[in-house]
Structure formats: structure tokens, C-alpha cells
Design goal:
four-stranded antiparallel beta sheet; Alpha-Beta Plaits; 2 helices; alpha+beta
Length: 120
């Protein structure tokens, strides 16, 4: 089955448990349609670059899935209809990377970028 990565933003006035409940809800939608969530991450509340529906912040969530296209289309349709979900991004990938995503890694673990003060 094809591999996908999804990021969605939900409203800032939800609690953390409600936002994480959305991840479980959309995971069950995939499972009901023959797909599976390989890994999910809750990134927390982050400030957005611009306002969306009068919100400056939102709960970010990330899903790695292994699902047929029809299951992904149904999940996206339900996400777009859900009142708490503001934005959805789905990308088809060749393979999932191992370990946590870049958003979940500590700043020190992101590689050898050097100290910014040394660039002068």
C-alpha cells in the first residue's frame, strides 16, 4: 500500500487531550477503510505565520500512514468537514524515516549547524 504523511492543525481553544483525541479519531477512520497509522506525533500548540479563522495558534499533529488512496481520501474529507480542524496537508512518500520527526528532535540533536555567533 502507498505510504503517506499527514499534518493537520486544529483550533487553539481545544485541550491537549481533545487534540490528541482527534489523532485517534482519524486513525480509526483509516483503520475502518483498510489503512493503518504507522506512527503519530502530537507537536503541541504552535504559533502560525498568519491568522487562520481568527486564530493565531493551533494544535499541530503529524501522522505516518500506510493506507490505500480511498482511505486517505475519506480521512481528508472528514478532516475538512470537522469543525475543529483548520488545515490539512497530505504528502505521498516513498518511505517513512525512522525515529522522531524533525519537530520532535531537540535543537541540539539536529546536526552540526555550528554556533550562530561564530558566523560574523
Amino acid at each position: 500500500m502507498p505510504l503517506y504523511e499527514h499534518v493537520f492543525i486544529s483550533r487553539q481553544d481545544l485541550s491537549n487531550t481533545q487534540a490528541e483525541g482527534l489523532i485517534e479519531h482519524f486513525g480509526t477512520v483509516l483503520a475502518d477503510n483498510g489503512g493503518a497509522v504507522v506512527e503519530s506525533e502530537y507537536w503541541g500548540v504552535k504559533t502560525m505565520a498568519y491568522k487562520i479563522n481568527k486564530n493565531r495558534k493551533g494544535h499541530y499533529a503529524f501522522l505516518k500512514t500506510d493506507a490505500p488512496a480511498t482511505a486517505v481520501q475519506e480521512m481528508e474529507r472528514l478532516m475538512r468537514l470537522h469543525d475543529d480542524v483548520m488545515r490539512v496537508l497530505t504528502i505521498k512518500v516513498d518511505g517513512h524515516e525512522e525515529g522522531p520527526s524533525v519537530q520532535m528532535q531537540k535543537r541540539d540533536d539536529r546536526g552540526d549547524r555550528g554556533d550562530r555567533r561564530e558566523r560574523r
